[in-house]
Write a structure and sequence with these properties.
There is one protein chain. The strands form seven sheets. The chain has a seven-stranded mixed sheet with strand order 6-12-11-10-9-7-8, with helices on both faces. The longest helix has 21 residues, at about 395-415. It contains 15 helices and 21 strands. The protein has two domains: about 30-50 and about 325-485, Aspartate Aminotransferase, domain 1 (Alpha-Beta Complex), CATH 3.90.1150; about 60-320, Aspartate Aminotransferase, domain 2. It has helices at about 15-20, 55-65, 75-95, 110-125, 145-150, 170-180, 205-210, 265-270, 305-320, 325-345, 375-385, 395-415, 440-455, 460-465, 490-499, and strands at about 25, 30, 40, 40-45, 50-55, 105-110, 130-135, 155, 185-190, 215-220, 245-250, 260-265, 280-285, 290, 350, 365-370, 385-390, 390, 430-435, 465-470, 475. It is of the alpha/beta class. Helix 3 (about 75-95) crosses helix 9 and helix 4 (about 110-125) packs parallel to helix 5. It is about 35% helix and about 15% strand.
């Protein structure tokens, strides 16, 4: 089989980036707006999930011509599937610069969550005498709740306030907790990039500090992998190496692909995997079974998501060919442009440290417009401008609540006094999040900024045109969007039957 890394005359990184910018499924999807006009969607919800890379999709379609199950080489298609699936694992290890002799890569679930539960259980079993996990306050629930459930007692590390703006993880406070709980901290788990603010944490420096006090380091790279170069091992100072790192294929330009775990083999080899089944055993008898020693097979019970892995491997290969340094440079150019535009709007509150020299960001900005509900802002951006963003708390409630104290201190105090436990009972509890992928452009950012200016200018008009429906969402009083007008699965299937 001809693999992509054997193809001649590929363009260099920056040329390749420009070449594929519009090569994403759904890039030019058109919707009719509340104004009556039909325009191209501007997708700015990449932090939730990215669009599908066209090259990755076509690679998968080509693979389907040879599709078979893996873990066999007894017929041609099975050999192709097995070789391709194995190549993806190797390619990902190379992408994150993890030594294949020390690390393994395996797939689980559809994002970080399943893998993080696995890592939390594994590390707890690996050092059961250690009962504390240090987690930053800025984490997504997938890098918080699994440690509470399986890892032990979780202590949240505050972030550096930088003159009252929420910034990166506070290294001094992290060291304080490591010293205070010396001998009890099993591991530190921290996000590479916040899914709320886009703030980048210095993960290799965190690793060095954790290792200084005999703690392991786990990195949630769900956002990091698509934006920033990663060096898991081979650092000049080996104390800066990462012990385990997880990321999500659906946030790395391949919706439908599995979650990825890269971890030291030493953590896993002495502990039987929690999930058992076909493919991860050598022999099974009526009374006992024997787990394979071979990685990653022992960690991947059952038939894997082969097609998802193929698309992920293709996308990772393309990102590496572009060069993650080039991706980050482009990403920060868009992010910094958006920040500059928004900082100049007095009605806009940006959450998190905005000085990117002090605290770099990539790809994500959360904000509110003063005296305007986040749900209404997101609805207007969609209905009138065809800009897809997200709102509410982004599965990071403690972090969001902490930052909302800047703008909603009175409401937060009242909610605590009233013992409100559901954010559905707090309609003000949330933000609007705009986020970028490699398919976004400077023109997209400027269009978004102009949309914000118009919303601020016509705030009263927009507020009069919406009501809150039974789901708690803002709905236009006259304009109605019906999903079936654009896609209905049963109708699509019926049309295919008819040819």
């Amino acid at each position: 089989m001809t693999k992509m890394n054997a193809l001649p005359n590929l363009p260099d990184g920056t040329d390749l980036l420009e070449h594929i910018k519009e090569d994403f499924l759904g890039f030019d999807t058109m919707y009719k707006l509340a104004t009556g006009e039909t325009t191209r969607r501007r997708y700015m919800d990449s932090t939730a999930s990215t669009l599908m890379m066209g090259i990755a999709n076509r690679a998968a379609q080509n693979f389907l011509q040879h599709y078979a199950n893996t873990h066999s080489e007894m017929h041609f298609s099975a050999r192709i599937a097995t070789d391709s699936y194995h190549w993806v694992h190797e390619r990902i290890l190379k992408f994150v610069q993890a030594d294949p002799d020390e690390y393994t890569c395996f797939f689980t679930g559809s994002g970080v969550t399943a893998g993080m539960n696995r890592i939390a259980r594994t590390l707890k079993n690996f050092r059961s005498e250690r009962d504390i996990v240090l987690v930053s306050i800025m984490e997504h629930h997938s890098n918080d709740l699994p440690h509470r459930k399986h890892g032990g007692k979780v202590i949240h590390i505050p972030v550096d306030t930088h003159e009252s703006q929420m910034g990166c993880i506070d290294m001094d406070l992290l060291e304080k907790y490591l010293i205070e709980h010396r001998g009890r901290v099993n591991y530190v788990s921290v996000t590479g990039i916040s899914n709320v603010t886009g703030i980048i944490n210095p993960i290799n420096k965190v690793a060095k500090l954790a290792h200084k006090y005999d703690a392991f380091i786990v990195v949630d790279a769900a956002q990091l992998a698509a934006h920033v170069p990663i060096i898991m091992s081979g650092n000049e100072d080996s104390e800066m190496d990462i012990d385990a790192l997880l990321f999500s294929g659906h946030k790395t330009y391949t919706p439908g692909s599995p979650g990825v775990v890269i971890a030291r083999k030493s953590f896993l080899s002495g502990i039987e995997p929690v999930e058992v089944g076909g493919g991860m055993v050598d022999r099974v008898f009526p009374e006992e079974y024997f787990v394979k020693d071979q990685f990653p097979d022992r960690e991947e019970a059952g038939t894997p998501n082969i097609l998802g892995a193929i698309t992920l491997g293709a996308a990772i290969h393309i990102l590496d060919r572009i060069g993650m340094d080039n991706v980050l440079e482009e990403d920060q150019m868009l992010t910094n442009l958006a920040l500059r535009e928004m900082i100049n709007m007095n009605e806009v509150v940006i959450y998190g440290e905005t000085n990117t020299r002090t605290c770099p960001r990539a790809g994500t900005i959360s904000f509110n417009i003063k005296e305007m509900n986040h749900g209404l802002v997101a609805a207007v951006l969609n209905d009138y401008f065809n800009i897809a963003v997200r709102n509410e708390c982004f599965c990071a409630h403690p972090y969001v609540e902490k930052m909302l104290q800047m703008t909603h201190a009175k409401q937060i105090e009242k909610a605590k006094a009233d013992n409100v436990i559901s954010w559905h009972d707090e309609p003000w509890m949330g933000m609007v999040r705009v986020s970028f992928g490699i398919y976004n452009s400077m023109e997209d950012v400027k269009f978004f900024a102009e949309a914000l200016r118009e919303i601020i200018l016509k705030k009263d008009k927009f507020e009069s045109e919406y009501f809150i429906n039974s789901k708690g969402d803002y709905e236009h009083k006259e304009f109605k969007f019906t999903s079936d007008e654009y896609f209905c699965l049963s109708s699509t299937a019926e049309r295919e039957i008819l040819g």
